Amino acid sequence: MNPLEYISQSEKLHTREVNQQEKINAINSEIFSLESEISALESEKAVLYSELSSAMSMADEDGNYNYSLVSAIEAEISAIDERIEQC
Hints:
- The chain has helices at 3-57, 67-86.
- By secondary structure, it is an all-alpha fold.
- The longest helix has 55 residues, at 3-57.
């Protein structure tokens, strides 16, 4: 291999390496974004579980819960679980 061929091959390898590094950086950025989104969703879910616990501890004089509120909170939790699964 003459010096010009060597330089040409070296430049091709360098270009490929740079492209691969850019792809890796983009994937890492996406992973970070997804991890941040999942963390935010988990925090929101924790708040909802607290609200659910509170809603279930509040009963009227007959011992009945506000079932519509409990159901709404459970639906929100389920929606968050689905969003987390999509991540």
